[in-house]
Amino acid sequence: MNRILVASHGKLASGLKSSIELLSGLGEKLSVIDAYIDDTDYTDQIDYFIKQLKHEPGVILTDIKGGSVNQRVVQRLLGQENKNVFVITGVNLPLVMSFVLNKDPVDRNLVDKIVAESKLEVIDWQIPDNTDKSEESNSDFFN
């Protein structure tokens, strides 16, 4: 089983886990770190996740590129022997869902594929300025 950690500022990580559980029932596949919700140092949680991998592949998803949580994760991975830990930043629900539902072992190609696919899920959904409220008009909305 692929191991996945979501680490974020505040409760974004646990919120994503809650959404994954609601949508798929697979919330248990995620480990989460909700950083800065109290004075607890979360470094040990990062180290524990990395240690649990035992040289197996793993994915760590963080919220903000260059943010303090992302920086701490990267610092903890520097000098590690396990080169199969992938850090991805800019976490969103489609990204997490793709990793959770994936059954293939995590490698560079899979990570690149899932990241590229999740980027397509971020769109500017422009609501048409349409005064026609007919049923036919509404059915075309998602096309």
From TrEMBL:
It is found in: Cytoplasm. CDD domains: PTS_IIA_man. This is PTS system, mannose-specific IIA component. The keyword Amino-acid biosynthesis does not apply. Signal peptide: none annotated. Residues 1-142 form the PTS EIIA type-4 domain. It comes from the Bacteria. Keywords: Cytoplasm, Kinase, Phosphotransferase system, Sugar transport, Transferase, Transport. Pfam families: EIIA-man. Its main location: cytoplasm. Gene3D superfamilies: Phosphotransferase system, mannose-type IIA component.
